[in-house]
Write a structure and sequence with these properties.
heterodimer, A: Alpha-Beta Plaits, six-stranded mixed sheet, 23 helices, about 40% helix, globular, B: mainly beta, five-stranded mixed sheet, about 15% helix
């Protein structure tokens, strides 16, 4: 006890801020990520106060925390960012792409500085002097040298209508054909008289939902039964009437064209205080979130957490202009504007505590199963109350397990959110134009899986951008819009989650892949089905890219993607149509913690096989097994010889009952090969909770983990991949 | 000598409490703060190709815990498993390990002056893992640095690359 006493006195003597460092680093990283997301989805022409305030708050929080903990370099950098953002949100400056670029670079530099502090301050700090200089110049209202020649101070008359493909994807029914010309007309649309003027509000929804349709704003009108809207659109009157017909009858609509002279909207309506054409101010009446704008610096690092507005970027345009020009690079769909989520009360809990909770609940489930088993022999007439209680216990433990498991589930948006920035940079580098669309980012997945799926997904998205999407000129020649679309979607299907990466690029060529495969001496034939051909690209070192770029094309990767996904008990499928694009679907189990297993008996021991790798099982006669060179055993299954692995020998299972012998084969498939495992008996299938052997022990050859059986005993889970590889040597 | 220094550290911290247990005729003591709990022996699940003193793994309320038989590790003449055989569950560096011993004696507080440095003798126990000898009347207590002992490479408990 002496030791404990000593420790408590030493820590109480000197209050040490360092225990909060980790919290600060996490908070700061989150704030920088959030800021980046908001910057990327910021529409320069129509940036509204809410967006700018949100970005400002992120920088401010990081600065406050950094100052408190004495990371003066971080504080100085974020202070400069804050000064710039402050002038922006006061509308003393008009946001432009140079500012966004500088702010994004500063966020990167900030991350670098933080990473250095987190690592104990070793190594060279990333240089920030130039960034600080550029920010200062921007704050002073100067043009920075790196600024492209675009004139950012002049707001373009209309928001860009470049996201028609996005609209076509998501709103196929309502999508208007993008007009050939970019002429925008200013219209006054009068709807009424209506019995229920609220009907007309649906028109506003139309403009919000259909990208590229234009902007709409409500104009004050003194007739209660009539609504008047000011609309800027490039669609024809007929198109508009067709659309409106969903909500109001044609006779009630009158469209009047107003002068197309570039008169600032303020002078006409006098109700806008935002940037020209800023529709959100009146469309979304969400009150600003209650978060204080300038909390005392000492507490700044706490305010990024619960209740902070989280932008739900459902579609984020990423486009590459040769100079990152304002128009194309900001082709951000209207739906991307941050929608303030309702205040959600959250707490930050260490993952180890959650895991402990999950373990305890798992144990409770086992105890409950044991009680249920033992009570089965009881006479229901005599023990009615006890049995009712046990039934309740059964239901409650199941509900409890479900709720506890859901704590570990996090939305896919955590993964998806990193792609817009990556694609923006990548597309810029390649000179391509790419729109990035995400669907189903609220789909939830186990945290452990989310971390492991990020790298393979990154690879697939990069591949799509590099190999799939053509150069703008090629796209136009192929009769497609010059902006390509990459879609990332996630959805639940039964007990698994399906993640898809789609692009509308040139797809894969069956002939090219077959030719390449022959060149590499692979066993292929023209009779192979399409899906078999597509699976060839997962072979190690396979690439059909004509040019090896520094992004991809070296052929390493697709096999790694497949291996990573297989390690998560998942599968990959490819679908492609030449000239129209391709789709990669990844199917994963919802959680790593639970697996469908098949239990097999060897001697007195029980081992678990992942059901996903079991192909079939059958009883063998001893003469069905032949040997090669008096060593390796082979069994013939239909037309195929496959290696036999005797689990009894691999695991040196002691035999007490010599009457029993292994005569059942279980064929398993892993890494594309099949082997037959020789076992004594098949015990059944069940869901097992996967436990880690390494946390208290070490990695055991041919074993991937352990689980606890219904009787409380431990059973080992076989590593099918290792067993298959073992048979090859 | 290292052992002397360690005893110096210990004595400055005042008397410590030790859990004592028996292996055959010998009596050992380990720091009580490293002990999580004491349980009866239940047959573990065997792990193939592990050293003989690693009996396997058991389920400790949902955690998979390896079980080391100290009697086999220390080459005791016999290692029987009966209703008196106990497992001491240790919590070392946030890793949990169970050790099988013949019996647990008691918990005793040792004043610093009763600790003696262990002479260098040839033994199956790594000399570094012996903190010293404690004398209690005519009984001799071998004080183990259980953390050091269990993290040794020959225990094969942790991954080779630590």
């Amino acid at each position: 006890m002496a030791e404990a006493h000593q420790e408590s006195t030493s820590s109480a003597g000197d209050f040490d801020l360092s225990q909060f460092y980790q919290i600060f680093f996490e908070e700061a990283a989150e704030n920088l990520d959030l800021m980046e997301q908001m910057l990327l989805s910021l529409n320069l022409e129509t940036a509204d106060d809410e967006e700018l305030n949100g970005i400002f708050r992120c920088a401010h929080s990081v600065k406050g925390g950094a100052a408190t903990f004495g990371f003066s370099d971080v504080a100085e950098l974020t202070h400069q960012m804050e000064s710039l953002l402050d002038r922006l949100r006061r509308h003393e400056l008009q946001p432009n792409s140079a500012m966004v670029d500088v702010l994004l670079e500063s966020a990167d530099a900030g991350r670098g500085l933080l990473a250095r502090h987190q690592a104990g301050g070793e190594g060279d700090a990333p240089p920030t002097a130039d960034l600080v200089r550029r920010i200062k110049a921007l704050v002073a209202g100067e043009m920075v040298q790196t600024l492209p020649s675009a004139a950012p101070q002049q707001p373009l008359p209309t928001p860009v209508v470049a996201s028609a493909t996005v609209a076509a994807q998501s709103k196929a029914v309502l999508a208007p054909t993008p007009p050939p010309s970019n002429t925008t007309r200013s219209l006054e649309i009068r709807i009424g008289p209506l019995d229920h003027p609220a009907q007309a509000d649906a028109i506003k929804e139309l403009f919000r939902d259909i990208e590229g349709l234009g902007d709409i704003t409500v104009v004050a009108c003194n007739q209660a039964d009539t609504r008047v809207f000011a609309v800027e659109t490039s669609s024809t009157d007929a198109d508009l009437l067709d659309l409106f017909a969903f909500h109001v009858s044609r006779e009630q609509v009158s469209i009047k064209e107003v002068d197309n002279v570039a008169v600032a909207p303020e002078t006409r309506y006098g109700i806008f205080d935002g940037a020209a054409g800023s529709p959100e101010t009146s469309l979304y009446d969400d009150p600003p979130p209650g978060a204080p704008l300038a909390p005392p610096p000492g507490f700044g690092f706490f305010d990024g957490a619960p209740g902070a507005p989280v932008p739900v970027a459902s579609a984020t345009g990423v486009a590459a202009g040769s100079s990152g020009s304002t128009a194309s690079a900001r082709a951000v769909a209207k739906v991307a504007s941050p929608v303030v989520q309702p205040e959600a009360a959250t707490i930050r809990v260490a993952i180890s505590k959650v895991d402990q909770l999950i373990n305890l609940v798992g144990e409770l489930v086992i105890t409950q199963a044991m009680l249920a088993q033992n009570s089965r022999a009881l006479d229901p007439a005599l023990y009615q109350q006890l049995l009712t209680g046990l039934t309740d216990l059964d239901r409650n433990t199941r509900d409890l397990q479900e709720s506890v498991m859901s704590i570990r589930m996090i939305p896919m948006s955590i993964v998806f959110s990193r792609f817009p920035r990556m694609l923006r940079d990548l597309a810029n580098k390649l000179g391509k134009k790419v729109d990035f669309v995400t669907q189903g980012e609220a789909t939830e997945l186990d945290k452990g899986l989310v971390e492991k799926i990020t790298d393979p997904l990154t690879h697939l998205v990069r591949n799509s951008c590099d190999h799939g999407i053509e150069m703008p000129a090629d796209r136009v020649r192929a009769g497609k819009s010059e902006t390509g679309t990459i879609t990332l979607s996630a959805a639940h299907q039964g007990g698994s989650i399906v993640i898809e990466v789609r692009d509308d690029g040139h797809g894969m060529s069956r002939e090219k892949i077959l030719a390449k495969a022959r060149e590499r001496g692979m066993d292929v034939s023209d009779q192979m089905t399409d899906s078999e051909v597509w699976m060839l690209i997962f072979a190690p070192g396979f690439s059909t890219a004509e040019v090896v770029t520094d992004v991809s094309g070296r052929g390493v990767g697709m096999d790694v993607v497949k291996r990573n996904i297989a390690a998560l008990n998942g599968t990959v499928e490819i679908d492609s149509a030449e000239g129209y694009g391709m789709k990669v679907s990844i199917r994963l189990p919802l959680t790593l913690a639970i697996m469908d297993g098949m239990s097999v008996g060897v001697g007195d021991e029980v081992y678990i096989l992942p059901l996903s790798s079991v192909v079939e099982s059958f009883q063998v006669k001893s003469d069905a097994v032949s040997t090669v060179g008096q060593g390796a055993q082979l069994v013939k299954v239909r037309d195929e010889y496959m290696p036999v692995i005797e689990l009894e020998k691999v695991f040196q299972v002691p035999r007490f009952d010599f009457d029993k012998s292994s005569d059942i084969m279980v064929v398993i498939e892993a890494d594309g090969s099949r082997v037959a495992l020789l076992v004594d008996e098949l015990l059944g299938q069940q869901q097992v909770v996967v436990k880690n052997l390494e946390s208290n022990y070490r990695k055991v050859p041919n074993i991937s983990g352990a689980t606890i059986l219904g009787d409380g005993k431990v059973a080992l889970i076989l590593d099918t991949g290792a067993l298959v590889r073992r048979s090859r040597h | 000598m290292g052992a002397m220094e360690r005893i110096g550290e210990m004595t400055s911290a005042g008397a410590r409490e030790y859990l004592t247990f028996r292996l055959d005729q010998e009596e050992y003591g380990i720091d009580i703060l490293k002990v999580q709990e004491i349980r009866g022996y239940e047959p573990p699940t065997r792990i193939a190709n592990a050293p003989n003193f690693i009996k396997g793994v058991v389920n400790l309320r949902g955690t998979i815990v390896p079980i080391v038989d100290m009697r086999l590790k220390f080459n005791c003449s016999k290692a029987e498993y009966d209703s008196f055989t106990v497992v001491i569950i240790l919590n070392l560096h946030s890793r949990i390990v169970g050790i099988v011993v013949d019996s647990v004696s008691d918990v005793m507080e040792l004043p610093p002056e009763s600790l003696k440095a262990a002479p260098d003798v040839d033994s199956v126990i790594d000399g570094d893992a012996v903190l010293g000898l404690g004398s209690l009347g005519d009984r001799m207590l071998i004080l183990l640095d259980i953390e050091k002992l269990m993290s040794g490479v020959d225990m094969a408990l942790a991954p080779d690359v630590v």
